[in-house]
Amino acid sequence: MTNGLNIFICDECDTLATMSVEGDTIQSNERTTMYKLTTAYDNNAPHHTMQFNNALDAVNAYNKCVDWGMANEYATYNLTEPSGLMHTKHFWRNGNVNGK
Q1: Are residues 40 and 69 in the same domain?
Q2: What is the predicted pLDDT for the residue at 69?
Q3: What secondary structure, in 3-state letters, does 10-70 show?
Q4: Are residues 59 and 83 part of one domain?
Q5: Which of 96, 95, 97, 64 minimizes the C-alpha distance to 79?
Q6: Among the listed ranges 7-11, 39-43, 84-88, which one has the minimum average pLDDT value?
Q7: Is there a smaller number of Cβ atoms within 10 Å at the N or the C end of the chain?
Q8: What residue numbers bound the domain in which 17 lies?
């Protein structure tokens, strides 16, 4: 190993990580956690994606999703945590709401 700062993206957890390396010793490991909020209309691929560094901002944005938006039938809002846990809301044009 060489001395320096290595920056990489963890594909499994979608986080940006940095490591300071001196010789064969890792000095520190910092992570920037990424929460994702996606919006999809009807049965289409996500129309809009937002990323957040902290849970509070992500949940506040997720809570603002309160109607079907521009969908013909329904809108789907997914909030994905860094652990992979996903929260989903469906807003139907006829007024029905469901989620998990």
Answers
A1: yes
A2: 86
A3: ECCCCEEEEEEEECCEEEEEEEECCEEEEEEECCCCCCEEEEECCHHHHHHHHHCCCCCCC
A4: yes
A5: 64
A6: 7-11
A7: C
A8: 1-32
Instruction: Verify that 69 and 54 share a domain, yes or no.
Output: yes
Backbone angles phi, psi at 63, to 5 degrees: -70, -20
CA distance 65 to 77: 7
Output the pLDDT for position 7.
Answer: 39
Q: Is 70 exposed, middle or buried (0-12, 13-18, 19+ CB in 10 A)?
A: exposed
CA distances from 31 to 17, 41, 66 (A): 5, 32, 31
Q: Are residues 40 and 3 in the same domain?
A: no
- The percentage of residues in the chain with a pLDDT greater than 90, rounded to a whole number, is 53
Which of 53, 17, 10 is closest to 33 using CA atoms?
Answer: 53
- Could you tell me if 40 and 28 lie in one domain? no
In terms of domains, do 64 and 46 share one? yes
Do 26 and 44 belong to one domain? no
Order of strands, sheet of 4-10, starting from the edge strand that comes earlier in the sequence: 4-10, 15-22, 25-32
